Amino acid sequence: MKKILITTLVLLIPVLLILISGLKLVKTGNRQVSYSLTTEMRNQIDKETRGMTAFEIQIYSIEFTAKHLDFAKRNDISKGKANCVGYAQLCACVFNQALASNKLKGYAKPVVGYVKLGRLNICHVLRSLVTSKYKNFVKDHDFVEFDYEGWIDGPRYADPCAYDLIGDDCMTFALSF
After folding, report:
1. Residue 7 confidence (pLDDT)
2. Full DSSP string of the chain
3. Could you read off the pLDDT of 35-57 as tens digits, one per residue?
4. What integer pLDDT is reported at residue 94 of this predicted model?
5. pTM of this prediction?
6. Regarding predicted confidence, which is higher, 120 or 60?
């Protein structure tokens, strides 16, 4: 019964958040890239992004990631399974590959932080709701920092995992804090 309640809460929270809106991503640190694209993926990305702008590539990388991954507790990107860490890793690699193949300047990198709704840190809320088994799993959240030429406001953050789960990439501008 307790497991059903926790599962229900974990599934309902994103739905409620999207209804309320106003989600913001707050960076607390950087995450090292530990994933490399396969040759097949690189070729596909090069072909599909030919002639795109950096902003179009950002959207493409988020959608590509959501198409190629399903949410899982553990990362196995090669088998299409990932948690927020894997989503951020793949998305950043896709963006950087497409930028390079289109000879555009900029970067994407996976970062760690939390999701904020108003003044609420959603990671803290989840930690108070889950059993000790999952507390480490929800302690923080990974998403992607994008920065590229032609965007005057500096870096922005987007969440390919949230996009896949709730249909909103939670784009947040770094200068808005």
Report:
1. 67
2. -HHHHHHHHHHHHHHHHHHH--EEEEEEEE--------HHHHHHHHHHHTT--HHHHHHHHHHHHHHH-EE-SS-BGGGTEE-HHHHHHHHHHHHHHHHHHTT--EEEEEEEEEEEETTEEHHHHHHHHS-HHHHTTTS-EEEEEEEETT-TT--EEE-HHHHHHHS----EEGGG-
3. 899 999 999 999 999 999 999 99
4. 98
5. 0.81
6. 60
